[in-house]
Amino acid sequence: MKWTVLGAVGLVLSLAHPAVAQNLPSEVTDGMYITVDEVRSNSMDTFEFFAGPSGGPISKQQFVSSEVPSDVMPNKPERPLLEKLFGLLDADSNGQLTLSEWRSRINRDLAFADQNSDGRITLKELANARKNMGVGDALGMVF
What we know:
Layout: H1 5-14, H2 19-22, H3 26-29, E1 33-35, H4 36-51, E2 58-59, H5 60-65, H6 79-89, E3 96-97, H7 99-113, E4 120-122, H8 123-131, H9 135-140
Antiparallel strand pairs: 1-4, 2-3
Protein backbone atom coordinates (compact mmCIF):
# COMPACT_ATOMS: atom_id res chain seq x y z
CA MET A 1 0.00 0.00 0.00
CA LYS A 2 1.42 3.40 -0.98
CA TRP A 3 0.83 6.65 0.86
CA THR A 4 1.60 10.32 0.45
CA VAL A 5 4.81 11.83 1.77
CA LEU A 6 3.07 14.07 4.23
CA GLY A 7 0.67 11.34 5.25
CA ALA A 8 3.57 9.03 5.99
CA VAL A 9 5.61 11.58 7.87
CA GLY A 10 2.54 12.94 9.63
CA LEU A 11 1.64 9.47 10.82
CA VAL A 12 5.11 8.83 12.18
CA LEU A 13 5.37 12.24 13.82
CA SER A 14 1.96 11.78 15.42
CA LEU A 15 2.79 8.42 16.95
CA ALA A 16 3.00 8.86 20.69
CA HIS A 17 6.19 6.85 20.80
CA PRO A 18 8.23 5.04 18.11
CA ALA A 19 7.57 1.77 19.93
CA VAL A 20 3.91 2.08 18.89
CA ALA A 21 4.88 1.25 15.30
CA GLN A 22 6.79 -1.77 16.53
CA ASN A 23 3.57 -3.10 18.11
CA LEU A 24 1.59 -2.87 14.86
CA PRO A 25 1.22 -5.94 12.64
CA SER A 26 4.06 -6.43 10.15
CA GLU A 27 1.65 -6.14 7.21
CA VAL A 28 1.08 -2.54 8.33
CA THR A 29 4.64 -1.60 9.27
CA ASP A 30 6.23 -3.31 6.28
CA GLY A 31 3.32 -3.10 3.84
CA MET A 32 2.81 0.65 4.01
CA TYR A 33 5.56 2.53 2.26
CA ILE A 34 6.53 5.46 0.11
CA THR A 35 9.23 5.26 -2.50
CA VAL A 36 12.38 7.34 -2.31
CA ASP A 37 11.58 8.64 -5.82
CA GLU A 38 8.15 9.84 -4.66
CA VAL A 39 9.71 11.73 -1.77
CA ARG A 40 12.26 13.34 -4.11
CA SER A 41 9.52 14.36 -6.55
CA ASN A 42 7.34 15.78 -3.78
CA SER A 43 10.31 17.61 -2.28
CA MET A 44 11.03 19.24 -5.65
CA ASP A 45 7.41 20.42 -5.86
CA THR A 46 7.83 21.90 -2.40
CA PHE A 47 11.11 23.62 -3.31
CA GLU A 48 9.50 25.07 -6.45
CA PHE A 49 6.60 26.35 -4.34
CA PHE A 50 8.96 28.32 -2.09
CA ALA A 51 11.36 29.37 -4.88
CA GLY A 52 8.66 30.60 -7.24
CA PRO A 53 9.36 31.45 -10.87
CA SER A 54 12.95 32.48 -10.12
CA GLY A 55 13.89 28.92 -9.18
CA GLY A 56 15.70 30.05 -6.05
CA PRO A 57 17.59 30.60 -3.98
CA ILE A 58 15.00 30.97 -1.23
CA SER A 59 15.56 33.60 1.43
CA LYS A 60 14.83 32.87 5.07
CA GLN A 61 12.14 35.56 5.08
CA GLN A 62 10.52 34.06 1.98
CA PHE A 63 10.60 30.58 3.54
CA VAL A 64 9.10 31.46 6.91
CA SER A 65 6.47 33.89 5.62
CA SER A 66 5.08 31.87 2.70
CA GLU A 67 1.52 30.63 2.99
CA VAL A 68 2.05 26.94 2.42
CA PRO A 69 -0.96 25.27 0.77
CA SER A 70 -2.66 22.59 2.89
CA ASP A 71 -1.89 19.91 0.29
CA VAL A 72 1.84 20.60 0.80
CA MET A 73 1.75 20.89 4.60
CA PRO A 74 -1.68 20.29 6.21
CA ASN A 75 -0.74 21.77 9.58
CA LYS A 76 1.41 24.82 9.00
CA PRO A 77 4.11 24.97 11.65
CA GLU A 78 4.63 28.12 13.67
CA ARG A 79 7.26 30.60 12.49
CA PRO A 80 9.92 29.52 15.06
CA LEU A 81 9.69 25.95 13.82
CA LEU A 82 9.96 27.08 10.19
CA GLU A 83 13.01 29.16 11.14
CA LYS A 84 14.60 26.09 12.73
CA LEU A 85 13.81 24.02 9.65
CA PHE A 86 15.32 26.69 7.42
CA GLY A 87 18.48 26.56 9.54
CA LEU A 88 18.67 22.79 9.01
CA LEU A 89 18.31 23.19 5.26
CA ASP A 90 20.63 26.20 4.83
CA ALA A 91 23.88 24.22 5.03
CA ASP A 92 26.24 27.21 4.71
CA SER A 93 24.13 29.45 6.98
CA ASN A 94 24.15 32.35 4.53
CA GLY A 95 20.41 32.99 4.74
CA GLN A 96 19.82 31.65 1.23
CA LEU A 97 18.56 28.15 0.52
CA THR A 98 19.77 26.82 -2.83
CA LEU A 99 18.50 23.87 -4.80
CA SER A 100 21.81 22.13 -4.14
CA GLU A 101 21.43 22.53 -0.36
CA TRP A 102 17.83 21.35 -0.59
CA ARG A 103 18.73 18.22 -2.58
CA SER A 104 21.68 17.44 -0.33
CA ARG A 105 19.48 17.50 2.79
CA ILE A 106 16.74 15.44 1.14
CA ASN A 107 19.24 12.82 -0.03
CA ARG A 108 20.84 12.62 3.41
CA ASP A 109 17.46 12.22 5.12
CA LEU A 110 16.33 9.61 2.60
CA ALA A 111 19.50 7.57 3.05
CA PHE A 112 18.96 7.73 6.81
CA ALA A 113 15.30 6.69 6.60
CA ASP A 114 15.65 3.97 3.94
CA GLN A 115 17.64 1.73 6.23
CA ASN A 116 17.78 -1.27 3.89
CA SER A 117 18.36 0.86 0.74
CA ASP A 118 15.54 -0.82 -1.19
CA GLY A 119 14.13 2.46 -2.50
CA ARG A 120 11.08 2.25 -0.23
CA ILE A 121 10.57 3.77 3.20
CA THR A 122 8.22 1.69 5.31
CA LEU A 123 6.33 2.77 8.40
CA LYS A 124 8.76 0.73 10.48
CA GLU A 125 11.75 2.50 8.89
CA LEU A 126 10.14 5.90 9.51
CA ALA A 127 9.46 5.00 13.13
CA ASN A 128 13.07 3.86 13.56
CA ALA A 129 14.32 7.05 11.91
CA ARG A 130 12.15 9.12 14.23
CA LYS A 131 13.53 7.29 17.24
CA ASN A 132 17.08 8.12 16.14
CA MET A 133 16.71 11.79 15.23
CA GLY A 134 15.55 15.03 16.73
CA VAL A 135 12.22 16.68 15.95
CA GLY A 136 13.91 19.24 13.71
CA ASP A 137 15.50 16.49 11.69
CA ALA A 138 12.20 14.65 11.43
CA LEU A 139 10.58 17.81 10.11
CA GLY A 140 13.36 18.05 7.58
CA MET A 141 12.14 14.75 6.21
CA VAL A 142 8.80 16.36 5.33
CA PHE A 143 10.52 18.11 2.47
